[in-house]
Design a protein that fits this description.
Strand order of the largest sheet: 1-2-4-3-5-6-7-8
Number of strands: 8
Distance between the termini: 41 Å
Strand content: 15-25%
Largest sheet: 8 strands, mixed
Helix content: 25-40%
CATH topology of the largest domain: Rossmann fold
Structural class: alpha/beta
């Protein structure tokens, strides 16, 4: 009797729901498992700033890019599990009052996800991969929960308030630019600002100021320098939001960390042509795959970590 044909493994992982209970309600996420169901490593993927969901999509932008979902699937195909989740206030997770939300809430939530994955007992190693603002959240959570590894993807080295300064430089009318500087200085001192002009309200509305104050206290390079676990810094050289200088500053802060600059990769992890129109179009293109170089560098790091 002839042997049955060997069927190829499916080209995607298996996704199932996962939840984290907090004192104020449930956080909901997705566990992506390898096609074989067997895995020794799990990566907690933390999304970036604003209303960015577990898949890497932002409702304030046209279309979806699905970059974090694609990353999870690439890991699953390579035999590595991952969890990505909606931060509190987003997607399927618990609703929150913005005025009561701080950056530290996000850090503690990420640390609690790591603790949950440890308790499950399925995984030999628990690793954090934070994208953009999620990089700093991941650093602090990895330190707090003693993760086995930390991956910063398009993460900042500078204090977020400094980044806002240079992002807005030359883009505001003179009077508004002066007010922007004054507001940033007050928030850095831990002081709330009541008289926010309409032109800056989206950035500094009173309800978001507690979050900004708690965020501005942190300097990612200083946190990164303290991390004792193996670390990896990944950065695209076509990223219009976070430059390669930030990756170089992180590397300088922690020389033991591995790092890779991915040629042609933008902020949402896609390979783009050398023009702004192509770059921004990728933010809403779910058919454009994530950069192969990113996946290759991440898998090299994870394979070395498992030895």
């Amino acid at each position: 009797m002839p042997l049955p044909p060997i069927l190829p493994l499916p080209a995607k992982g298996y996704e199932s729901a996962i939840e984290l209970a907090t004192a104020t309600g449930l956080l909901r996420g997705a566990l992506m498992s390898p096609p074989s169901g067997l895995c020794a490593q799990v990566v907690l993927i933390i999304a970036g700033s604003g209303p960015t969901d577990r898949d890497g999509n932002n409702p304030l932008l046209p279309g979806n890019n699905d970059c974090l979902k694609m990353l999870a699937n690439e890991l699953a195909i390579a035999g590595i599990a991952s969890v990505r989740y909606d931060k509190r206030g987003l997607g399927g997770s618990v609703r929150v009052d913005e005025a009561a939300l701080t950056f530290d809430d996000f850090v503690q939530d990420a640390a609690d996800w790591l603790a949950l994955l440890r308790r499950e007992g399925r995984f030999d190693q628990v690793i954090v991969a934070g994208h953009s603002e999620g990089s700093l959240i991941g650093m602090l959570a990895a330190e707090r929960a003693a993760a086995d590894g930390l991956v910063s993807i398009a993460g900042l080295a500078e204090r977020a308030s400094n980044v806002l300064r240079w992002q807005l430089a030359g883009k505001l009318p003179a009077a508004l630019a002066r007010r922007n500087v004054a507001i940033l200085q007050a928030l850095e001192r831990g002081e709330r600002v009541d008289d926010v002009p309409p032109g800056l309200m989206a950035l500094y509305r009173p309800s978001v100021q507690p979050y900004l104050i708690s965020w501005f206290k942190r300097v990612p390079a200083e946190v990164f320098a303290r991390l004792a676990m193996p670390c990896l810094v990944l950065q695209g050289d076509a990223d219009l939001q976070v430059g390669c200088d930030q990756a170089m500053a992180l590397r300088a802060a922690n020389p033991a960390a591995d790092w890779a600059v991915i040629e042609g990769m933008n902020h949402v992890l896609k390979i783009v042509a050398d023009d702004p129109q192509s770059n921004f179009a990728a933010y809403g293109d779910p058919n454009l795959p994530i950069a192969p170089g990113l996946v290759e560098a991440l898998l090299r790091y994870l394979n070395a970590l498992s030895r």
